[in-house]
Amino acid sequence: MVKHEDALRRLKVIHGHLGGIIRMVEENAYCVDIIRQIQAVEAALNKVSAIILDEHLNSCVITAIQGEDADERERVLTEILDVFEMATKV
Amino acid sequence: MVKHEDALRRLKVIHGHLGGIIRMVEENAYCVDIIRQIQAVEAALNKVSAIILDEHLNSCVITAIQGEDADERERVLTEILDVFEMATKV
Amino acid sequence: MVKHEDALRRLKVIHGHLGGIIRMVEENAYCVDIIRQIQAVEAALNKVSAIILDEHLNSCVITAIQGEDADERERVLTEILDVFEMATKV
Amino acid sequence: MVKHEDALRRLKVIHGHLGGIIRMVEENAYCVDIIRQIQAVEAALNKVSAIILDEHLNSCVITAIQGEDADERERVLTEILDVFEMATKV
User: First and final CA of chain C: distance in angstroms?
Assistant: First the structure.
């Protein structure tokens, strides 16, 4: 079981950041400032995804690939490919 | 002054979604499921940015470009370019 | 009419770069090295898009927005929004 | 050794597509049409990267992770993380 302490801490900061963006919108902040803050949140979320993927590669993926179950190996590799393809789209 | 009602509503949903992701991490959900939810949040944030940019183009940008102030015109166009370049990076 | 000399020069360099990637694949280069070169080409293409958008904003967009034709104004602004939304997806 | 026949075929098509974009720029095509074609090339390149990553995961990565060399295992996993992080940026 992987514990994502760094990722969790970052997500809580991002959650607060997003709350701040909601207040900006409620107070009619300048459009471009809002968009820039949203882009900063997205960059921070990309970092969290990378941290979680790192932990995943070094735990579940190693276990699956070293295991005997060919279907499970195939499954974890397909998942990695899926998150990579999705990463090129968001 | 632009009111972003649709964007605001979406941001509140995304804020709740992100709260759910934090709980997933706290409860040690499967890594790939967490990453997929983060990517869903990013796609939703992209949509909010597009909505706000649309409103910005149809208000401030038109006003600035039709105005007499060349510096202000230059400023709003440079901002649009900046958010476009940043969009290709996050 | 806008002349894109800088963009053209960059595109020709990228075209050569892509030819080099094709040779890498033909010669069975290491997969990760190929992917990194593809990502370098994509970053270079993003820069070209930004250069062309900059020229577009400072010519056609200003002309359209200062013009009398409301449909034309709407059209150029919708186009900018479209390329922004697409930029968040590729 | 992995043979990337599908990737190679796609790269050659993309190379031709990029040549067409260069001609569009030389002939002063409409800016937004050029940007849209560049974005189409980027989407096609993302697909090639995914195909090559798929082949990489199912060959080198499996070999490395099932092998005895811990440094090699670490190296291939770090590479995957690197291309993922880069994918979120281009």
Answer: 28
